[in-house]
Design goal:
By secondary structure, this protein is of the alpha/beta class. 33% of the residues lie in helices and 16% in strands. It has a single domain, classed as Rossmann fold (3-Layer(aba) Sandwich), CATH 3.40.50. The structure holds 2-phosphoglycolic acid (PGA). 2-phosphoglycolic acid binds at residues 37-39, 132-134, 168.
Amino acid sequence: MDIVICKDREQAAHMVAGLIDRAIRAKPDTVLGLATGATPILLYKDLIRRHRDEGLDFSRVRTWNLDEYVGLAPTHPASYRFFMNDQLFDHVNIDKANTHVPDGMASDFEAAAAAYEAGIAADGGIDIQVLGIGSDGHIGFNEPTTSLASRTHVQTLMLGTRLDNARLFFGGNLDEVPKRAITMGIGTVLESRTAILMAFGKGKAQAVAAMVEGAISHMTPATALQMHRDAKVFIDEEAASLLKNIDFYRAVYADSPLRALEA
Ligand code: PGA
């Protein structure tokens, strides 16, 4: 796991955008796994700027989002499809037909989940998976106790997750937050060629410490990334504040080619 402790979230967004930018220029039909929530917003702004000012071309890029709320239509302002259109897709030259978000309104979720997995496979698998982390250590909407081998499935959300998201995206109204979501599984995420997890702020410090330094456990789903072949973690000082071996991570980073992304 590469640990990059950034001076602030702007720098983290800049570096991750740089990594995605390089990937798309090298392979124009790059398959991106994308995330919603507060964490990737600056990343998407940076990608939009690179499209507008630096010719970053999304015309052949394909995307697969991690998750969607069960029961929210794509037109619902709190749906993750709406978020993705609003925060990224409407502002770059991506073909919407190449963008995928799980269907929160599916009549048969088992079939929808299987079709989602098959679609990712048909695209050749995910090159770069962008991830946030929940304060409970979830990735995607895979809550504690989800199988580390899980595939796309319907997941019941923990109260803490619903409270976090009520605050950010539902005007503080818990009753509005769906109780279930359809999410890529942890096994799905582990198959991506590169996984990039970003986390910012004190509220994520405990989950980040457990992910980086704790034992692999389904009680902290993000610990599964310890088994990922190429996981990179971009965090700010606050999210890094509970790491015990922080000096070591800084020393490793001092020699890392990832430093070039700071430019
Ligand atoms: P956030 O959510 O980016 O809104 O903090 C992250 C997550 O729950 O995975």
